[in-house]
Amino acid sequence: MRATGCSADVIRVGEIRQFYTGGATVVRVPVTVAKMLAKGRLLVGWVSAQVKVLPRKPLKCYRCLESGHVSAQCACETDRSRLCYRCGQPDHIARVCSATPHCPLCAERGKAADHKIGSQNCSPPTTRSRKAKSTAGRAPNSGPVRPVTREPVEAMETVAQ
């Protein structure tokens, strides 16, 4: 990445997916690099690739499988961490699962559960963490205060056409 000045050890490239119009992959780079690359096209070998900055993924708890918090802040008593994301059965992963999709989150709430966890058809409510956030001493509308420990990373998709 000569043009951006980014070192190769901070770049993460995902698996290339093939489509009839070309291929696509997700590349994780620092935010500053993503903003520079999103302004145009990226030359990858002999191919000129289109660059799109992807929206940030929502928080996801891998303990209870609900969104809106992470497992370190989970207040749910049910541990679903060993369930398959596709069928909701324990002790295997979705990549090797060929069972019919079933969402245990929607099934618990009495909703249609004929989809995999987290799909577009999934409609469980997001839950808040159990840790109450103190607003004392903060300016109004200042938002949460987070310590910066490393440079943020942005995901982007490159599409070769």
From TrEMBL:
This is CCHC-type domain-containing protein. Keywords: Metal-binding, Zinc, Zinc-finger. Residues 60-74, 84-97 form the CCHC-type domain. It holds the Pfam family zf-CCHC. Residues 118-127 have a biased composition (Polar residues). It comes from Loxostege sticticalis (Beet webworm moth). The lineage of its organism: Eukaryota, Metazoa, Ecdysozoa, Arthropoda, Hexapoda. SMART domains: ZnF_C2HC. The keyword Cytoplasm does not apply. It comes from the Eukaryota. Residues 115-161 are annotated as: Disordered. PROSITE patterns: ZF_CCHC.
